[in-house]
């Protein structure tokens, strides 16, 4: 197989694996009484982009978009792939062959800035969930989720490196 194709596949598998790790974490939280695992609001947000609407006062009150659940899940996984590519872009593709935990956790935790500064304000929740009923709880949950994503980056790369030997 072409080395470039192998490298792209590694990055994609790391991104998908990390995102799936996050999803398992979110399912566990849901089973323990946390919020439901629903990316429809994200799909609704993204679905409004072609109409030139990037910000909402409250995404729940915005017009529904056909296929918003699928669009939300797709965007969720595409974002995971992009963050995996960022990690490999910063660390080099060799990181996928000999992964270390610190860069993965740093990227994972650092990615919390995306929802805090972009997504939450655009959905009407304010910067870092400031307009939610429990901002500190929302921030802590986001930070924990993104740390789990970072751990998922590392574990996915570790698994891929192991099976590639």
Automatic annotation (TrEMBL):
Checking InterPro entries in the record gives: DUF2938
Assigned keywords, A-Z: Membrane, Transmembrane, Transmembrane helix
Q: What is this protein called?
A: DUF2938 domain-containing protein
Q: Which organism is it from?
A: Ramlibacter aurantiacus
Question: Where does the chain cross the membrane?
Answer: 71-90, 102-123, 143-163
One matching Pfam family: DUF2938
